Amino acid sequence: MATYAVGDLQGCYKSLRRLLNKISFSPDCDRLWLAGDLVSRGHRSLEVLRYVKDLGDSAVCVLGNHDISLIAAHYGVIKPHESLKAVMKADDREELIDWLRHRPMLHFDHELGYCMAHAGIYPHWSWLQAQQCASEVEVPLRGATVQRWLEQVYGDEPTQWNNDLQSYERHRFIVNAFTRMRGCNPDGSLNFTIKGTSKDHQQNGLYPWFRLPTRSLLPYKVVFGHWSALGYRNDNQIISLDTGCVWGRKLTAVCLDDDIIQPIQVACK
């Protein structure tokens, strides 16, 4: 059995199937970790949702910002991206959205020594805090008042974590940290303005979240996506997997069981 982690799909269904063929993925014996953003911008989000859902326990997907946006669009909180028309018209939309909103914010495997979150793990959280924060927002996302909750958690503020944050402000920060984070100011506050490479962040006085000097040590190496300008990166702390498939670059997988991690890629059109 092998465990493969794959970067952001964003509706690129054909690229996903070509990548899975390349690694000879078998749902009967292998496991697939998907780093979030299954949908949006690409034109086959519906096929991606149906395929990953049908994989059942063979696949785990953490929620990305585009996945949250699709859920919000389903409930009329925001307008859907134009690439999501097929999803919004699908007869099984209700079933797919219900499945999607029950995906986790954070996933980990103690034996493998890896955890996964779409944008990463906020650098000032301990591992226990990260687990607690993920569980905290999963409850309303899966609950009966999800529409009202989503109406309140969209926004950029607050950008600084505080243990005393309450209610929607607290949840807004948690969702943003797990799904939108890239660069941090030296004090650990989130910056949503700069979206380029890590060099662009450094030139603006920012740190990539995983390079913040005051970052808490975690017991697991973090697998994440979300940052296509960063591209593939692998060091002793993180594996970055978003290599811009939807922008015509590559879709990337890694086998987490391998002693030496090497990217496995297909070109995307």
Keywords for this entry:
269 residues; 9 helices; 5-stranded mixed beta sheet; alpha/beta; Purple Acid Phosphatase, chain A, domain 2; globular
Plain-language structure description:
- The protein has one domain: 4-Layer Sandwich (Purple Acid Phosphatase, chain A, domain 2).
- It has 9 helices and 13 strands.
- It has helices at 13-22, 45-54, 65-74, 85-89, 93-100, 127-141, 146-153, 167-179, 198-203, and strands spanning 3-6, 31-34, 59-61, 107-109, 114-116, 183-184, 190-191, 207-208, 221-224, 233-234, 238-240, 250-255, 264-267.
- Strands 3-2-1-12-13 form a 5-stranded mixed β-sheet, covered by helices on one side. A 5-stranded mixed β-sheet has the order 4-5-9-11-10, with no helix packed on it. Strands 7-6-8 form a 3-stranded antiparallel β-sheet.
- α3 (65-74) crosses α5 and α6 packs across α8.
- The radius of gyration is 17 Å and the shape is globular.
- The mean pLDDT is 96.
Quick overview:
The chain has 269 residues and is of the alpha/beta class. The chain has helices at 13-22, 45-54, 65-74, 85-89, 93-100, 127-141, 146-153, 167-179, 198-203; strands at 3-6, 31-34, 59-61, 107-109, 114-116, 183-184, 190-191, 207-208, 221-224, 233-234, 238-240, 250-255, 264-267.
Instruction: Give the oligomeric state.
Output: single chain
Overall geometry comes to globular
Structural class: alpha/beta
Would you tell me which CATH topology applies?
Answer: Purple Acid Phosphatase, chain A, domain 2
Estimate the strand proportion: 15-25%
> What is the CATH-assigned architecture?
4-Layer Sandwich
The CATH top-level class label: Alpha Beta
Number of helical stretches of at least 4 residues: 9
Radius of gyration: 17 Å
Biggest β-sheet strands, sense, barrel: 5 strands, mixed
In the sheet with the most strands, the strands line up as 3-2-1-12-13
End-to-end span in angstroms? 30 Å
Total domain units: 1
The name of the CATH superfamily reads: Metallo-dependent phosphatases
Q: Approximately how much helix is present in the residues? A: 25-40%
Model regions low in confidence, pLDDT < 50 over at least 5 residues: none
Q: Total number of β-strand segments? A: 13
Average pLDDT = 96
Order of helices and strands: EHEHEHHHEEHHHEEHEEEEEE
